[in-house]
User: What shape does this take?
Amino acid sequence: MSHFPCDKIAYEGSSSKNPLAFKHYNPEEIVGEKSMKEHLRFAAPYWHVMRNILADPFGGGTAQMPWDDGSDSVENALARVDVFFEFLEKMGIEYYCWHDRDIAPELNDLSASNDALDQVVAKLKSKQEETGVKLLWGTACLFAHARYSQGAATSPDANVYAYAGAQVKKALEATKELDGLGYTFWGGREGYSTLLNTNMKRELDHLAAFLHMAIEHADKIGFDGPFYIEPKPREPSTHQYDSDSAACLNFLREYGLMERFSLNIETNHATLAGHTMEHELTVAANAGKLGSVDANRGDTLIGWDTDQFPTDLYLTTQVMLVVLGMGGFTTGGLNFDAKRRRESHEPIDLMHAHIGGMDTFARGLKIAHAIREDGRLADFVDQRYSSFDSGIGEKVESGSCTFEDLETYALENGEPGLASGRQEMLENLINEFI
Ligand code: XUL
Ligand code: CO
Assistant: This one.
């Protein structure tokens, strides 16, 4: 039975007028040394595709989900799996991501919830085997239930902390069972609403202990994929500890977690943090810690995390410049952590949304590749720093320079003749390729 009124979405080229076709994403097309699908590694999030009813802070859900009986039963959860895999198959998306509570219901007690999860995981496993689809990452939902309203791994209550640990233990085991490539921590409640009631130092110590326990358990069960932290500065908490790439890296370094962790960077989280996406990606990549990407965008006119589909070529070009610059993804990929607008409530809108995101990233990939092949941008940047390639600059970079050396140099050489940064010229250069 078909739940989406369309055939498998095909590549028809840029002259196609078919809204249910790719105009730019041609999975097998080679760009540089890899095919588009190997570069982009698209993933779909179970929570948005299957579970997002399209509510907003002022109104309830609008999404039509005729396959869903609205119940918390395991049968309903199992039925959704077929629909999701039909969606993936029709879109040609080969990876997916989940929270434990997206795929299976939270029932009256933890062991009943664990049993439900086991049943759904068994079905996901057989679907993965049948289709070749892979789990990009799993995660535990430690933010929706009321018990986590004051945090999970940063809860002031050790009972809650224990519950969260038990939940992550199980979610890790499910990720391992499904050969997941990675495991994500997004700390929506790991922060505070007011410092008046918060011992920040104890909360951060507890969070670090929690993550060390996760590593220990992963080693115990033979899960060897990376852990990702997904930065976001606020929402739902007023302040979240994992606020941006730099804050996460500092935390990981301080608590001896760098080896096993890298970052999963989301566009709308970067902008909520007051950064651009390329800034967040670059901070992570410079530390060798850019693991994966949650691909979406925000809206400049709305202050919250709107999780819109990426449609901006400048954005996808800049993302792909960083991704290509680090040599591409290894375990990570581009997970569309994005939802349709509330007005786009029909199942087929899921196709339109993902086609747009995939085509926009395909173009971003081609443009970024062409900019790199052209070489003028990189040459300009190299040239801009060339005074550090020899003489006094080289001495600075080699670590052998002193303030006395700098003073002698400055006294001898007089006022520096600074070159233009040429921002406008470089913006024009990027536009040449877009
Ligand atoms: C929330 C968000 C999450 C994480 C996974 O803003 O991005 O969906 O990606 O918990
Ligand atoms: Co996300």
